[in-house]
Amino acid sequence: MDVATGRLGESFGERLARHDLSLTRERTTALQVNLGLACDLACGHCHLEAGPARSEMMPRSVMAEVIACARRFRFDSIDLTGGAPELVRDLPYLVRGLAPETPRLILRSNLVSLEGERGEELLQLYRELKVVLVASLPAGNQAQTEAQRGAGVWERSIRALKRLNTLGYGLPGSPLELDLVSNPSGAFLPPPQLQAQEKFRRDLARKHGVSFHNLYTFANVPLGRFRRFLERSGNLEGYLEKLSVGFNPCAVAGLMCRSQLSVDWCGRLYDCDFHLAQGIFHGGGERLISSLTELPPPGTPIPSADHCYACTVGSGFT
Amino acid sequence: METYYDPKDLGSFAEIGKDAPELAGKFFDYYNEVFAEGELTEREKALIALAVAHTVQCPYCIDAYTRACLEKGSHLGEMTEALHVVTAIRGGASLVHGVQMRKIAEKLSL
What positions does the domain Carboxymuconolactone decarboxylase-like occupy (chain B) (predicted)? Predict the structure, then answer.
């Protein structure tokens, strides 16, 4: 690794070329909507450096453009993320506007922002519209969860999961889908998804009486707050090398950037949330969702960067 | 400072095959087969390896299997409990020989 630039010897683009691969779009079926960087947590793995000190939030005018876009193109899924979406004032307007326009409206929650009167109102809204909830829970134990997400978060997360189960979310056979997302709490890779899912299911049921549907495991992306942790702890070189050595050419075909568009709180378009964090625009230049008159055709090139290695390690990040 | 143990040496383990490739090949094939999922999961095997690594006090193994345990989904509580199992057996192995001590002492004593 070049210590001065923090880059690996071989760029992601060079690696693709060596395997005779290219990163191009398939049919676009998903829209990811990043509602802003305001969050009630400041997680150590966050590539966006979201947190309580951030004020970026999607205004209602941009939400209207997102809803209009969803009406134009009818995405198979729309995925609301942040920051913490629940902190965004006009979230109910957006959720009500998008729910009829897609068969699968997903909202990523940090769980703790579901607390209180506002959280309860949102929970009722999610249930009414059958919003799929994807909740962050890095580990099935307090120490690792709080190492990443902050003191006291474990108990609050378990309380929120129990409330979701009470509402019917995450129960076997329930149409109210509750999935969990687990990111490693450090400079190591996640376990295989199915094995981790089995262990989470057993541990959460046995110790806390909590149930959920699916668990997704993702590698941490060496950007933002997580990159600073890697630098500070002397783990950057080893982690980047681990991502590079673990490059799986077969994972490229299933990368999420090939079938989704990502839009930020200002309405700007990207190919994924990590490119959003780095300001790498979809199509090579700043473009607003309001100007999107047709979806990018299959074969459109996607810009790559070295953080893409985090999505192609092992079985990949889809 | 130079030391006998350098973490980077672990990556050169395969070089041990240079002067005895057939034996090394058999060893590494066996090793990989042992750690593949079988009646025990890969995670459970990594926990056993971590515990044994502490018993044989091999710094390379402790490094490798601490990482492996984390990457296979074990957490520090489980890993620490595994070390206590090792400690109990190691301590117990010493203590249970006290039976020999007692037998010998009884034979020698009035």
Answer: 21-99
pTM of the model: 0.88
At residue A68, the 3 state secondary structure works out as helix
Residue A309 reports pLDDT greater than 60: yes
In chain A, which residue's Cα lies nearest the Cα of B7?
A: A238
Q: Where are the domains of chain A?
A: 28-227+259-270
Of residues A173 and B3, more confidence is placed in A173
Inform me whether the C-beta atom of residue A189 falls under 8 Å from chain B C-beta atoms.
Answer: yes
Q: Whole domain around residue B95: which residue ranges?
A: 44-108
Question: How many Å apart are CA A276 and CA A269, to the nearest integer?
Answer: 8
Is A3's pLDDT higher than 50? Answer: no
Query: Cβ separation of B76 and A140 shorter than 8 Å?
Result: no
pLDDT of A126 higher than 70: yes
Is B92 part of any domain? yes
The Cα–Cα gap between A23 and A40 comes to: 35
Look-up of token digits 């079938």: A259
Amino acid at A62: V
Partner residue facing A191 (CB), from B72, B76, B77:
B72
Closest CA to A203 of A149, A142, A260, A267: A142
pLDDT band at A1 (very low <50, low <70, confident <90, very high): low
**Residue B6 included in any domain:** no
Query: Is A196 an interface residue toward B (CB < 8 Å)?
Result: yes
Classify residue A151 by burial, with Cβ atoms within 10 Å: 0-12, 13-18, 19+: exposed
ipTM: 0.72
- Give the minimum alpha-carbon distance from B96 to chain A in angstroms, rounded to a whole number: 35
Contact present, A236 and A230 (Cβ < 8 Å): yes
Domain assignment present for residue B66? The answer is yes
- Reading the block at residue A33, the tokens are 């909507």
